[in-house]
Give the backbone structure.
Amino acid sequence: MADGPTINTIAARAGVSIASVSRVLNGLPTRQETVRKVMAAADELGYVRNAVARSLKSRRTHQVAFAMADVGNPAYLAMLREIQPVLKAAGYRLVLHSTDAVAADEIDVLRSLGERYVDGLIMSPLRVTDAHLETLAAARAPVVIIGQVPDGTPVDNVRADSRTGVRLAIDHLHALGRRRIAMVNGPLDTVPGAARGAGYREALEAVGLPYDEGLVQIGDFYRPEGRRAVAELLARRPDVDALMCANDLIALGALDVLRDAGRRVPEDVAVAGMDDTDLAAASWPSLTSVSLGSAERGRVAAELLLERLNGGEREPRRVTVPPRLAVRASTAGEGHSGEGSGA
């Protein structure tokens, strides 16, 4: 029987030294380009690594976890589509956790890092409590947070700019002549809910419109909740001429309610969402939405985590991904589809 591939044959195929192959296969710090070459050569040759033996020797699992609030939310799926290939190219498997935005579950995931079932964690919590911050400070493995944490938190952090994103949408709606612009938000005790609510107030002030509590409806970040919240809002304020929705799922629920009520979009009521998920362009009418760079935030988070895993000793980094507005039929009418302004 022919011998299987060895580190010698992998080195020859990859065009790197045997020592480099050994470092990659044992999870030691190595240039990313070298990692990609070695992993590609190993896959081509059918090399099967003994993961248990390697983990015992290097104290690495070559697994990374991604913890998100809702695995069905397209914004998290956009992150996932970028996180996985970045980690896979570096030889890491991805373990997924859907926490349902339950703080206790997220804190359990953070504490379980001490069990060394993964080498690092990317987490996107909706709420950041004192318990989160205490557990992050004591984390036993590198962590990157996608979302907002206070300055001084000892982890890398990739942020959206929701306030500016809301401002882009409100400016657009105001320029179209809308003057009774309602806000349908998620819970205000969440990071995105608080930021988007504050952005709405600031954006109204900037265009000279008064803040009216009667035009604000609080629900949750799901389509059924969007339907419920918008139905309640319209029953109270039928004079609304625009809806600023805190995410695309709420906005899709709004389209459902307006369609059932015989209200034309955008002629009677213009609708804007946030996240610019795949569902926005596919809806009818197509949905104007603010992109908060979900895919880019996922990619940057994965790259920051790899830097840590490869021995990067540096101060925690804060990266903010700027928003942009994608204008579609739900505000500008049929036949209009394209990107508007950015931050």
